Amino acid sequence: MTALTPLRDLPEANIFRKGDVFVLFGELFGRGYVNGLLDEARKAGMRIIGITVGRRNEDHSLRALSAEELTEAEANLGGRIINLPLMAGFDLDAPVGTPTPTDLLADLKIANWQEAKLDWAHVQACRELGVKRFRDTLAEVMGQIDSMVPDGANVFFAHTMAGGILKTKVFLAIANRIYKGRGDRFLSSQSLVDSDLGKLMLMNFDEVTANSFAYLLEASAALRQRIEASGGQTRYTAYGYHGTEILINGSYQWQTYTNYTQGHAKMRLEQHAEAAWQQGVKATVFNCPEIRTNSSDIFVGVELSLFPLLEALKLEAVAPGPNSSGSIASRCWKRAPAWNPCSKPSPITTTIQPSPSSVTMRPGRWTTPPSWPR
Questions:
Q1: What domain count does the chain have?
Q2: Lower CB count within 10 Å: N or C terminus of the chain?
Q3: Nearest CA to 256 among 270, 242, 267, 268?
Q4: Do the domain assignments include residue 319?
């Protein structure tokens, strides 16, 4: 995607009704973007089905949820979970008796990680094994889902898989320098993506964040054909990130926080949806605005795009009442007056309302989607 296509108005049309099926393709942990979709599915009376990524044994092998874990997960979801471990990625896969990609990184340290070289033939073998494991399990999962969807029903698939960070100690140290580093402790993200470690990480991101969506589209083809032949419809959504517009100097301008290393995989996710759409499959990636989460908090500066959101809520307020955007913004300001950027001039206000001549806001650098990710 290179053209910015912001969603200005929420669509009013809705094909979903009681008896239709909502499939969450990604395990629900706590609350996040997908909870809004789940709330709407419940309002419509849809049946909710979920999957699990499974859990790891001490030897890193995957297993299904225990009875206790399954009960807790289904209560959290509010629906039925297909208890087959559907973990995307290949960082812990390897032919029997050989090291996993994560094992290959065990000896990497801050002093040597940029020069370290990986056996790419072995990495590819691990990747192929991980992809086969995922797709084989997905075929079983889809068989169970197919048996739960009646003819004529509409089906909504919500893809929420994302991630793929390699679980190695050296990466934590590298990430702190890239995403939070200052002065002598700053490390350019380019050094990471140019290294073998970075290339491996980007491959795993692709499998978890992007290719899992393509595998879902492929694996559900037979179900999709049956549903549509019997009068029903299917829809696919995935959550992405591609920067977002925020209110700057009274107008909306696209911006992004950097460095967003996942950006390449998010763009591949968009490409899978575009390819599906060209084949007549209604698959849409919704690029979400920034929110503070456990994962986004590793990026310094992500909070700066959240402050103008309060002003945007006030600007867009059109309906009175306790749940209007203006009322919500007012309650936020009262709860946190110390960081309210709109109450008085402050360093925060200066940061989020930059001069148009500011180097960070020059067209073509951080303010145009084609320049992303950087």
A1: 1
A2: C
A3: 242
A4: no
Phi, psi for 19 (deg, rounded to 5): 100, -15
- Half-sphere exposure of residue 155, counting CA atoms within 13 Å on the CB side? 30
Residue 158 in this model has a pLDDT that exceeds 90: yes
Residue 226 lies in a domain: yes
- Assigned domain for 367 exists: yes
Asked if residue 293 has pLDDT above 70, the reply is no
- Whether 38 and 22 have beta carbons less than 8 Å apart is answered as yes
Q: Establish how many alpha carbons lie within 13 A of residue 230's alpha carbon, considering only the half-sphere containing its beta carbon.
A: 14
Residue 316 covered by a domain: no
CB 164, CB 204: distance < 8 Å = yes
* H or E, element range at 196: helix 196-205
Q: Give the pLDDT confidence of 241-288 residue by residue, as tens digits.
A: 888 888 888 888 888 766 678 889 999 999 999 999 999 999 999 988
Query: Rounded distance, CA 284 to CA 173, Å?
Result: 36
The CATH code of the domain that includes 290 is: 3.40.50
Distance CA 180, CA 227 (A): 48
Rounded to two decimals, what is the model's pTM?
0.88
Burial degree of 247 (CB within 10 A; 0-12, 13-18, 19+) = buried
Which of 98-102, 179-183, 219-223, 346-350 has the least mean pLDDT? 346-350
- Provide the sign of the torsion angle of the four alpha carbons 7, 10, 15, 19, taken in this order: positive
CA angle 29, 35, 38 (to 5 degrees): 115
Contact at 8 Å (CB) between 55 and 27? no
Radius of gyration of the chain (CA): 22
Say which range, 161-170, 201-210, 238-247, 328-337, has the weakest mean pLDDT: 328-337
What's the domain range around 226?
21-305+344-371
Q: What is the mean pLDDT of residues 35-56?
A: 95
Entry field: residues in the chain: 374
More confident residue, 32 or 172: 172
